[in-house]
Amino acid sequence: MPASNYAHAKTGGFTIEAPHAYNSYRDDPVLDRTLKRLLKPDEYERTSKDLDRFSQRILDEIGELGRQCELKKPELVVQDAWGKRVDELRVCDEWNTLKRIFAEEGLIAIGYDKSRDAVARRLHQTVKIALFNPAAGLTGCPLAMTDGAVRTFEALGLEKTEDPELKEAYERLLSTDGQRAWTSGQWMTEKRGGSDVSGACDTYATHVEGDKYLLNGYKWFSSAVDANIALTLARIVDENGKEDEKLSLFFLHVRKPGTNELNGIQMIRLKDKLGTRQLPTAELLLDGVKARMLGERGRGIAAISNMLNGTRLVNACGSVSAMRSILNLARDYSTRREAFGRRLDQWPLHLRTIAELEVDARACTLFLLDVAFHLGLQESGRSSEYQTALIRLMTPVLKAYTAKLVVPHVSEALECFGGMGYMEDSGIPSSLRDAQVMPIWEGTTNVLSMDVMRVMSTRPEAVDAFENAVTDLVEPARVSTDARIRDSVDAVKIALEALVASMRSFSYVSDVEGGITFAGGARSIMMALGRVYCGALLINNAIHPGANESDFVTAKRFCLERSLLGNLDETAFGKERNEQDRLILFNHTQNQGWMKRGVPISKL
């Protein structure tokens, strides 16, 4: 048979050149010099050297491991061929390798290295996690929960415990030995769940002896279920069947020590999620789980609140790094792809689109570093009363603000690739799917907005702290010789005055009827807090040594070409507005016969 019958297919001579990834630490326009400004010279040298090396490891090794986690999703085998219950969770080798890597690289341990200055270790850890996340195959989730567990142990004074079981757990959570290190789960969400953790908890604890209990319940959404240990909440029931009103915190081993047998746990099913598919998330039945109470009885919510700042910071790391990662790829792709006779970066509209994304990414990066810096100050005991109030206010703002931006940001950047951004085998679509979890995990935008309002009500000094912080950031720029910077300062000061007036003119009330005024405007105020603070940070960044023309233009574009306040008109927050919202949504459904014939979507 003629050889020509087996010739290679002729598909034309053109192929699309893929975008290139680079050292993500060196490729960031503000990371290195901001760290240089915030850290002492010896700490900067140590931190910068490690981040540079780690970024190269991400390019050479970690990125491909993360991609394989996306391609090889976890599986749950509930029964074997003979009907025996096995609850075998199968994850790919690359997933386990990445977990070993984040232990070896000290992504947890760095944040708790008591031999270092607290600010330095917190900034080092924050940036390293941010660099890791886009390539990590979602192992950043167990990383965040493990960090939260360590934070909880320390808040409860357990870092110095002599209890063998708890001491081993604490040491293994912090271990940099990839073979010895443990990860932790956080099992808080139940069927009625969401952010109302206390009201929705239907897990019960029966006392055995001492601090030992048996847990029974159903955890509806439990991520990284391959963890070694977990922290969970439950309601203690006494011998007479009386339930505690308040929840307690419990520590448990996922598997019975020294065995592969689950500790009274059945894995019911893995969640079929929009994104984060690399991450094994399951529904768990707790049936006589052996556990130990941590902290005081009925103080479980207070105990886990200690980890909130940490997990919110890690969430912001994920949002900011997702913005930066796909933005860098879109920028590089624009220098390689041609359309209508020009490279994409030579078309003004395409260039403008990516530049606007850069403005937001840069602002959010500075916001992330600022909050990490202040958290470090707080951990060191050097923060003032105002700085402590500021960090309590701005940590939920950071999480909510960056999470709200990341989804449209990634969507816009994906569009910059045209059809290739829609092709699964390009590896780009998963960025958008995974980004959607950010505004949901650790509290939705509305939940965090209400938390911000609660802080303003219970800690009125937080409003003063915010006003002082923004003023301190922009005041040195008033003497700038660059008119763009002076005009930007004026814009921020005007917005600050109006925002602070709005914050002080309302009183937070938690009940629905009385709280309509402030609750309706909570999101508007929270997002304005983020925009004004980011504007101040961009101005401050532009006046430091090493600043360049790009920094001036970025500050000007953010502060002068965008609305820093949004809609803060008091009439938009009142009871009348709330009634109008209800009218818009439900007026056409009132007393309509067809409303009685609805079908649950589970039946469609």
UniProtKB/TrEMBL annotation:
- According to its UniProt record, what is one Pfam family this protein matches? ACDH-11_C
- According to the entry, every stretch annotated as the Adaptive response protein AidB N-terminal domain falls at 21-154
Question: Where's the Acyl-CoA dehydrogenase 11-like C-terminal domain?
Answer: 462-586
The cofactors named for this UniProt entry are: FAD
Q: Which UniProt keywords apply?
A: FAD, Flavoprotein, Oxidoreductase
Instruction: Cite the Gene3D superfamilies for this sequence.
Output: 2.40.110.20, 6.10.250.600, Butyryl-CoA Dehydrogenase, subunit A, domain 3 (1.20.140.10)
State the Gene Ontology terms under molecular function.
Answer: acyl-CoA dehydrogenase activity
Tell me where in this chain the Acyl-CoA oxidase/dehydrogenase middle domain is found: 186-289
Name of the protein in its database record: Uncharacterized protein
Q: Which gene encodes it?
A: WBGene00116559
